[in-house]
Amino acid sequence: MLTVENSNKSKDHDKKNNQNINNIQKSIDNIQNKNEDVASSVERSKKKKKNIIEMVSPLGKGKLSSDKNKNYKRNKTRKFLIFILIGLLLLLTTISVLFYITKNKQNKSENEYQKEQELIKEAFNPSFIMNSKTGCFIAKDNVGCTSCNSGYYLMNHQCIQKSAGCFIAKDNVGCTSCNSGYYLMNHQCIKKSTGCFIAKDNVGCTSCNSGYYLMNHQCIQKSAGCFIAKDNVGCTSCNSGYYLMNHQCIQY
Fold first, then answer.
1. Using DSSP, how many helices (H) and how many strands (E) does the chain show?
2. Which residues share a beta bridge with 148?
3. What is the pTM of this model?
4. Distances (CA, A) of 68 to 52, 53, 54, 71, 75
């Protein structure tokens, strides 16, 4: 009986020992795994450190600087090509503008040359010489005068001298503007009369000075006996010693 109990106790004790051994083995395995993880992390940190050292080292700096130099050279090449293209466009534009200006100058110079030749030819024309005394500048055979000297205007191929009051005259029309003190009437400049204060072109006098009255756009001086005169009517009131008759003051 005692032997059976002792054998059972020894078996239980063995089981416990085995469990303890297994637990110890598991702990050892866990420690080994942790050591391996620590070793791998240490290895990774060593590699990172090595990479950082390589980057910081002259060789690493050389790699970075070479990449930067490549990018800088690419950007510089692009900028240079863009600059060349812009320069070519400006050059082509300048050439086209110069060509256009030169062509216009040639056309203009040819036209001016033809006009000068025509003037020279007409200058030696006998009809030009004959009419130059009458104000004619250029004359053509079987036509007459075609251009007048300064101070003349053309009318039916004849040169007519501007009147004293004419400021601007137009060919085949006559005077179109008058000097001060004149007014225009049918393309002729007429001098304002002494009593005229305001005159209107193609109308005549419209307002008179004191001592005058208006009659058919002409200023007429009041007679000695007229006291009050009305425009386009005549005298309406006389001074003492005069009486009115048909808008005239007669002395009695």
1. 3, 16
2. 136
3. 0.41
4. 19, 20, 17, 5, 11
Nearest residue to 167 via CA among 149, 181, 155, 154: 181
pLDDT averaged over the chain?
78
Report the amino acid identity of residue 47: K
| Res. 236: pLDDT tops 80 | yes
Cβ atoms 167, 177 nearer than 8 A: yes
Distances from the Cα of 50 to the Cα of 39, 56, 57, angstroms: 16, 10, 10
Separation between Cα atoms, residue 163 and residue 185, nearest integer Å: 13
| Nearest one of 169, 216, 219, 171 to 194, comparing CA atoms | 219
First to last CA, the chain: 200
Cα–Cα separations (whole angstroms), residue 45 to 6, 42, 51, 89: 58, 5, 10, 58
Q: How far is CA 13 from the centre of its chain?
A: 113
Q: Could you report the per-residue pLDDT of 99-123, keeping only the tens digit for each? A: 777 776 666 556 665 665 565 555 4
Q: Which residues contact 135 (CB under 8 A, 6 or more apart)?
A: 148, 149, 151, 152, 159, 160, 161
Q: Phi, psi at residue 186, to the nearest 5°? A: 55, 45
Amino acid identity, position 246: N
- C-alpha span between 38 and 27 (Å, rounded): 16
What pLDDT was estimated at residue 92? Answer: 86
- Output the CA–CA distances (angstroms, integers) from residue 126 to 135, 141, 144, 159, in the order listed: 15, 9, 12, 17
Q: Which two tokens stand for residue 165?
A: 């009051």
Q: Which of 206, 192, 246 is nearest to 223 (CA)?
A: 246
Tokens found for residue 240: 């003492």
